[in-house]
Amino acid sequence: MKTMTVNPEEYWLPMLRWHLESNFYPPYDSRLAEPCLAALTAVKEGDLKRIITINGIIEMEGEPLIAEKLVRDFHLEPLLR
After folding, report:
1. How far is residue 17's CA from residue 36's CA, in Å, rounded to a whole number?
2. Cα–Cα distance between 48 and 31 in angstroms, integer?
3. pLDDT tens, 46-73?
4. How is residue 56 annotated by DSSP?
5. Could you give the angle at the alpha carbon of 32 between the alpha carbons of 70 and 19, nearest 5°?
6. What is the rounded distance in angstroms from the CA atom of residue 33 to the CA atom of residue 16?
7. Which secondary structure element, helix H or strand E, spans residue 22, and what is its range?
């Protein structure tokens, strides 16, 4: 039997885009899916304080956007299980 290798980005990005567009009002820009994936990866690797770059997708003021905060603010905790 042939096993299939799945690229994590191909699997997670569509799911994250749907989450951002469908589970918030107003919906978030789907381009945030990539920073969300980077935050999830950082948290899974134990680097909770890794700084995640948004690059002008949305305006953020105040503290730097760290992985742990991004996961919490966008309700991504269930994806860490």
Report:
1. 9
2. 22
3. 999 999 988 766 666 666 789 999 999 9
4. T
5. 85
6. 5
7. helix 8-22
Contact by Cβ (8 Å): 72, 56: no
Q: How far is CA 81 from CA 27, 31, 69, in A?
A: 24, 23, 17
Residue-wise pLDDT tens digits, 3-22: 656 577 788 999 999 999 99
The tokens describing 70, both together, are 């991004």
d(CA 34, CA 37): 5
Ramachandran quadrant class, 29 (left: phi over 0; alpha: psi -120 to 50; beta: rest):
beta
pTM equals 0.83
Give the pair of three-digit tokens for residue 53.
Answer: 């770059």
